Every structure is written in structure tokens, then in C-alpha cells.
Amino acid sequence: MNQYVSDLDKGKALHFLFIKAESKTPGGLLARPVLTSYYKSEQFRKRPFDPYNVLTSPNAAILCPDSFQSMYTQMLCGLIMRHEVLRVGAVFASGLLRAIRFLQLNWDQLVHDIQTGTLNPKVTDPSIRECMSKILKPDPELATFIKTECSGENWERIIVRIWPNTKYLDVIVTGAMAQYIPTLDYYSGGLPKPCTMYASSECFFGLNLKPMSEPSDVSYTILPNMGYFEFLPHDDDSPVTLSRDSPPRLLDLADVELGKFYELIITTYSGLCRYRVGDILQVTGFHNSDPEFRFVRRKNVLLSIDSDKTDEAELQKAIENASELLKEFNTSVVEYTSFADTKSIPGHYVIYWELFMKDSSHSPTSEVLNKCCLAMEESLNSVYRQGRVADNSIGPLEIRVVKNGTFEELMDYAISRGASINQYKVPRCVNFAPIMELLDSRVVSSHFSPAAPHWTPERRI
């Protein structure tokens, strides 16, 4: 990055970093996200000084398991050191937007702390209180500035207004995170959003050698020494199924072809053998002879707000389970579709239902439909439920009931745009503006999950 942005060693990074809950396997092995493992390691806690990687957040705040105390402290430090901040970020774009929303909701308490030099009593972690006693001093001038910026209605360019020396946003905005780009541009005034690396918990894959390119143009050069990479040719019209009886031919890194799509298969030093990552990639070029890939999407994923991934089969099962609550009303779900609503922070799943009621005088009540929302959430995977319960990164699921005949109108619209009436299938996830407008114009009632779903860190991963 220093080849493209100068003087990154002359300031600090405001990165909102968090640990997540841990669990144990039935055999007693610790299971946790890779970043949680790293932040808790001695390599992070006792890392040597690096002028290019100085954080505003103290280790105590990053390692605090309480999300409110951690976010509050990291935001407070970022405000105190606002002139030293050269880049602002989080792991995912959704995480940075969650931090901005946190500032919107808590700026008055933060201003009080800066004004008085005292720490909010809600922050009870002893390690945080100890380190903040050395950082937090009364600063009435800064408190007045923050109050002036945050108390108004206009939050456009709030990032560069509060942190005026910010050179870029350090967040992932490819794949499902691309949906947050317009909101990030609004809050940052269009700051660059370099995507520097391509990695997962299983393996580090590659680097973006042109980090300042637009998110839609990002390609990653695979680092062949990070693992053994193989590629399964991918075609949406005729998906390949792996089986022992007739295994498909996997291609080596040197054999992929320009423009073609592949599913990534990895064998790692830590013991994964021919592991299907679930990412669909497209070859966009070559760096010398090393292929460069564009991340296209996660395979079979319909909905994603943060680190959650929900596919069609899981969504279908969740709807089937929720539909059980409708049987006593002689009501069933005729059709459905969905989308990930990221206009609010945090974002949430929206499910459109068209219902068939045999007896309109005995229709399901609003309370029952709210319970259907919760039943769906209880049926979704543990990553989703952790986002709802522990991380507060996902809002309550919403069901929007639409008028009868809505999905026929949806089909008519698709056919008018050239779809074949013989091959038309209801899309299980939508994001095309005209379709969204059609669906929303037919909504007769909206319902939200009345409580958080069950989730505990001891649950098996």
C-alpha cells in the first residue's frame, strides 16, 4: 500500500477489531474464528513495533469479549487521536458501517467522557479502565467539536469530517460486501476502498497487486506457496458434482484458462485435503505466468449480511419449519423470495411471503407471523444466530406478506423482459430495483422476529 499511498508510517490506523465467542468440539478441541485466534496469540499481543501498523485501539479493547465495551473504547480512542488517523476500517464493510451507527447512537456519552476525562461506567473491564486512565484526559475543545459534528441531521462525509487525514478505507468490499459501497461513499465522501488481499480461515490465497483499482475491477494474484491450489471448472447451467465413483478432472494452477470460471479447491499445510472453499472465481489475466482471479461469488449463497452465508436449501428448510405454525389456520406459503436489506444498520433478512388461506375469517394473527420470523431464525445456521445474538451484526428477520397474485405479476414481468415461460423459476433472492418496487408495492403487512434466536458459544460448530 505504501507504493500507492505515501506516509502511512506517519500516523495510525483506526481499525475496529473484535474477538468472537469460542466453542469446543465434542472431543474438547477449541474452535474459534481465525482472527480471534490471532488476536489472542502472543504474535499479536506482543508484536514488535511496526510504523506501518500502529493502531489507535489498545489491545485490551480488542480482546474484550463484550462487544459494547470493545466498540465504545475503540471509538473513544479513535476520536481522541483523530488527527493521527490515516486510515479507517474493519474486516468487512458491514463492520465499519456498524461502527458509524454506534457513533450515531452513543456520541453524547463519548462527548461526556472527552469533556470530563472520565470513562463511561458501562465500561467495567479492568484492563480497559487501566489503559484508558493513561489515554483519556479532559479535552473540552474536542468534545465541542464532536458534539457539533454528530448532533446534526447531516452525516454525509462524517468520516473525513471527524478524521480529516484519512487516506482510504481499509475494508473488504468485494463479493457480498459490494452492496455496502454506496453507503460507504456517502459517509466517506468517496474515499478509495482498496481490497488488498484474498484470504479465509482455511488459507491465505492471494494479493491484489493493484490495490487502488475500483472494487468492481479487483483481481487477486494467487500466491502458490500458501497451499496447493486446484480448480474445478464451473458452469451454472450444468454444475459439477464431486463423487468418488466419477471424480471430475481438477485443473492445476498452471492449467486454468483466461475468462473461464472455477470453483477453488485447496490442500493446506494444516491438513485440509482437496477442501472445497465454496468460492467461484474467474480468470482475468496473468502476472508473469501466475493467474489472476476475480472473486465472483460464494457458491449457492443467497443471503449474506456480515460473515453469515445462507443458501437456498437452508432458506427452504427454514420456511418449511416456520410454515408449521400456519397449519392450524389452514394457511400455507404459496411462494416466497428474499433479499438482504442493508439500508438499515445492522442489515437484516427480508422474506416475501404469498399466503394461501382456506378460511379468510380464521387467518394467522400478527403475533403468529412474528413467531414465524423467529422460527425461521431458529432454523438458520450458527454463524447467522451468533451475528444476531452475540455480535449484533444482523438485525431481526422480517417477513413481508404480499397480496395474492403478486408472484404471477413477477413472472409476467420476467416474461416481458424475455424470460421463457417454460423455463421460468421464481428467484429465491432478488435485488433488481424494479422487482423490489413491484414486491414492496404489494405488501399488506410486515412482521419482525420478536426475540433473538437461541445461540450459545458451547454449541458444536
Automatic annotation (TrEMBL):
Tagged with keyword Hydrolase: no
Keywords of the record: Ligase
Any GO molecular function: acid-amino acid ligase activity
GO cellular component, one term: cytoplasm
Coiled coil: none
Start and end residues of each GH3 C-terminal domain: 314-432
InterPro entries: GH3, GH3_C, GH3_M
Domain GH3 middle: 220-298
Family according to the record: Belongs to the IAA-amido conjugating enzyme family.
Full protein name: Indole-3-acetic acid-amido synthetase GH3.1
